[in-house]
């Protein structure tokens, strides 16, 4: 089984921070429980607490990488810990008041502790976890920042035209890697590359025997050697179509997802999670419907034709977030602060609640929870003529959320669509259930923080 997880390698810092919190939560809960009561706690409760702590921390953005530690960032992290502390206690109370039989707390008596005593113990444990997590995470962050400050540079070796194209793509990314250049009209010098983090080769065609020996020696010294395509893919988790030169490799890499056991497992997960979300959000359906109706007395839902799996057209339904006559001039992209959006529409768009009716599309099988966002056929026809490889997004079911949606704001132009396609292709190349799970958590964080719903300027 070949699991493609390069995005995990590039998130070592985040995964290590999560692992620290997970182990810390389990250790402190077990230690305090044993110290106070003389016995070990229920393993399910212990594991559930640790899982809830790291998932909530991730959603709140506690594991986000910061280049510098500032006073404002410290205050922000303290506020997040306070929110997390009360959220954990509130969840504990709700579970034990609603389902006392799950933990059998109404009958527990250990050293004269009643259920209220266990709740006090839970508060103490959370307090210790909060303080310890804050201190250890900041020590870990300070350590990684000091390493980041000594970060070595990448060196590009190739033509001026390719370097200019690469710089253009780098301007579209959030991060700014240390990058220098040696044009291929000059020979490689070992002394100029020995301290580099890695060497990016445009092509092997111009690498002569002398350069080849230098490259082998650099590899022995631990310097990474990558071609432009692979480097960009690993560094930025997206694949611009302009960098795809080997079309045979492209077709080979996407062919693996056509009949994949993970797709069948994904379908089962789609059904289960969609039904669960529909039950949980049923009150929101009524509330949103009432608010939409009272604003302009118009229809509650809005339907559009979209392109789905293998180019098949299907109907998508959303809560109406725009004015009734919003598309009297035909299909068009949204704008930043779009005047066609209603007041209620701005709220449900920013929180992605307008997408809730699409859960029925997931249940019917025309969509998935995670995948490339489906485009309108009339817009897609134009994009197919101008953007290479665009049609290959449809090799997998479209999704309510996707890798492009959690990494790039709302698209409102051909350039935005091209950048989003680079994320979609990355998703196709590295599709796995683990990546879907990561996208699901990132989507939850975007929804709670009301991010990514507006087109960029």
Give a concise summary.
The protein is about 55% helix and about 10% strand.
Q: In one word, what is the shape?
A: globular
As a whole number of angstroms, the C-alpha radius of gyration is 26 Å
Strand order of the largest sheet: 2-1-3-4
Strand content: 5-15%
SSE topology string: HHHHHHEHEHEHEHHHHEEHHEHEHHH
Q: So what's the oligomer here?
A: single chain
Distance between the termini: 43 Å
- Sketch the major β-sheet: 4 strands, parallel
Helix content: 55-70%
Give the helix tally. 19
Strand elements, count: 8
On the 0 to 100 scale, the average pLDDT is 80
Low-confidence stretches: 100-114
Look at the helices and sheets and give the structural class. alpha/beta
């Amino acid at each position: 089984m070949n699991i493609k997880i390069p995005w995990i390698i590039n998130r070592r810092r985040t995964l290590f921070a999560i692992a620290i919190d997970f182990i810390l939560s389990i250790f402190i809960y077990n230690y305090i429980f044993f110290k106070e009561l003389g016995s070990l706690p229920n393993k399910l409760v212990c594991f559930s607490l640790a899982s809830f702590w790291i998932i909530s921390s991730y959603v709140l953005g506690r594991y986000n990488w910061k280049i510098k530690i500032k006073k404002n960032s410290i205050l922000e992290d303290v506020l997040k810990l306070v929110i997390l502390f009360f959220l954990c206690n509130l969840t504990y109370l709700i579970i034990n008041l609603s389902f006392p039989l799950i933990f059998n707390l109404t009958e527990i008596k250990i050293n004269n502790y009643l259920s209220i005593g266990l709740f006090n113990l839970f508060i103490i444990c959370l307090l210790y976890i909060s303080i310890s997590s804050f201190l250890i995470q900041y020590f870990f962050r300070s350590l990684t920042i000091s390493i980041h400050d000594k970060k070595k540079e990448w060196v590009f070796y190739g033509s001026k035209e390719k370097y200019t194209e690469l710089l253009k793509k780098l301007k579209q990314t959030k991060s700014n890697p240390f990058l220098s250049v040696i044009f291929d009209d000059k020979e490689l010098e070992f002394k100029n590359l020995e301290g580099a983090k890695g060497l990016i080769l445009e092509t092997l065609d111009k690498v002569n025997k002398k350069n080849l020996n230098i490259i082998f020696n650099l590899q022995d010294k631990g310097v990474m050697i990558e071609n432009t395509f692979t480097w960009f893919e690993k560094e930025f988790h997206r694949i611009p179509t302009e960098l795809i030169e080997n079309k045979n490799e492209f077709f080979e890499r996407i062919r693996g997802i056509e009949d994949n056991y993970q797709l069948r497992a994904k379908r089962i997960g789609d059904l289960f999670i969609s039904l669960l979300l529909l039950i949980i959000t049923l009150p929101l359906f009524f509330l949103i419907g009432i608010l939409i109706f009272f604003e302009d007395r118009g229809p509650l839902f809005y339907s559009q034709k979209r392109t789905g799996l293998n180019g098949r057209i299907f109907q998508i339904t959303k809560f109406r977030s725009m004015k009734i006559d919003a598309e009297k001039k035909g299909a068009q992209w949204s704008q930043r602060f779009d005047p066609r959006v209603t007041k209620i529409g701005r709220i449900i768009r920013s929180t992605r609640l307008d997408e809730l009716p699409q859960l029925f599309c997931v249940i019917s099988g025309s969509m998935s929870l995670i995948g490339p966002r489906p485009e309108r056929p009339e817009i897609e026809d134009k994009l197919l003529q101008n953007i290479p490889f665009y049609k290959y997004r449809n090799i997998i079911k479209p999704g309510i959320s996707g890798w492009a949606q959690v990494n790039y704001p709302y698209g409102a132009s051909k350039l935005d669509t091209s950048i989003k396609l680079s994320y979609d292709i990355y998703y196709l190349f590295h599709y796995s259930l683990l990546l879907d799970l990561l996208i699901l958590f990132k989507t939850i964080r975007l929804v709670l923080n009301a991010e990514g719903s507006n087109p960029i300027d």
